[in-house]
Amino acid sequence: MNFYTKQHKYYCGIDLHAKTMYLCILNQAGEIVLQRNIQTDTEAFLKTIERYREDIVVVVECIFTWYWIADLCAKEHIPFVLGHALYMKAIHGGKAKNDKIDAHKIAVLLRGGMIPQAYVYPSQMRSTRDLLRRRMHLTRKRAELLAHIQNTNYQYNLPEFEKRIARKANRAGVAEHFPDESVKKSIELDLKLLDYYDQLLPRLEHEISLIAKTHNADSYFRIRSIPGIGRILGLLILYEIHDIRRFPTVQDFVSYCRLVKSAKESAGKRLGSSGKKIGNVHLKWAFSEAAVLFLRRNPEARKYREKLQKKHGKAKSMTILAHKLARATYYILKRKEVFRMDTFLKRSRETERACPPNWYQEGQVRWMPIKPSVYGPDHKDVHPGIVCPVPLALD
Question: 63-72 long-range contacts, Cβ below 8 Å, gap at least 24?
């Protein structure tokens, strides 16, 4: 969690909505110099803060309406902070709530250096990222149509389709497969929508690929050097990351990808884990998919995965593989390299030699999971990404 701690003469907290916005401006002493509810209009906003433009910083919560005001502040050279809505809710929750109170609390948090920051994605690539997310939504809708046809077939216990209906050439006669007229109409509707998606999505993917080559072709092709990552996964990872330099360490990156667990501890006792939904859900999905595709036609990767499966089980082995692919992606972009299988497997083997089964290595520290039944109730087993109470320095 990063906080905005720079000092300014005036602090403007905004409770932003679709049609209105409530402004609260504080001075350095914490005194309210302006409170006003205005329309979400660029001219009205600039006119309201005109007296304080000398040294003012603006903050809004990260909700769906923040794009326009972030772009306006960038154009007018006004410092802008995007507050992390989930963290802010935990910090400034109170008994009473309205626009006036919320705007004042946001301004107070900003003045006190307690605004948890979210990433302000630049406008040049933001619209393409949103287009990719829209493409994912439409792809899942297409998958729902295919699943509906299959489930309807199982409902009536009819013979299975001879070929995969995901391919357009194999859908001839699918509607006639169902004897009931109403069911047939429902399936015909699904097939028409599938035909439209099959025309729309490839064209959309091609156009996004052309745009990506103008934005950051170098990083795009470096990501695609990883086995299993094709055009769509490469585009998704590229646009969700944007700039790898915004992650100081590889641990920050894999945490953002939701590929580590966060321990909850108090008074030396572990109370479980939390924060599973904090991070980027799209990168979590992308690296989970990449882990599956990484194993296809890749004997070396399958052999390595079998070793992981013996130690950690089937499900956890795939999570660890996704975690390692995310780390590899970080270093590929950070060091401007391409993926090398020998390096990937060599580092994995070195980790296994340095750390016996159920050990975890991070940097120059070796973490040993200790079972409570053997060493007492204060020690717990750990998973990659969770800090363990017993560090041992490596030789």
Answer: 63/16, 65/16, 65/17, 65/18, 65/40, 66/16, 67/123, 67/126, 68/40, 68/42, 69/14, 69/16, 69/21, 69/45, 70/120, 70/123, 71/123, 72/42, 72/45, 72/46
User: What are the beta bridge partners of residue 274?
Assistant: 262
Angle at 330 between CA 270 and CA 292, to 5 degrees: 80
Neighbours of 172 (CB within 10 A): 11
Integer Cα distance of 283 and 237 in angstroms:
6
Spatial separation of the C-alpha atoms in residues 218 and 223, rounded to whole Å: 9
What is the Rg, in whole angstroms, of the alpha carbon atoms belonging to the chain?
A: 26
Cβ atoms of residues 369 and 381 within 8 Å:
yes
Q: What residue has token string 């209105």? A: 20
Chain segment 157-167, per-residue pLDDT in tens: 999 998 999 99
Contact 160, 153 (CB under 8 A): yes
Q: What whole-number distance in Å separates Cα of residue 45 and Cα of residue 319? A: 47
**pLDDT one-digit tens code per residue, 233-281:** 999 999 999 999 999 999 999 999 999 887 778 877 877 777 777 889 9
- The residues, any chain, with a CB within 8 Å of residue 158's CB and separated by 6 or more, are 177, 178
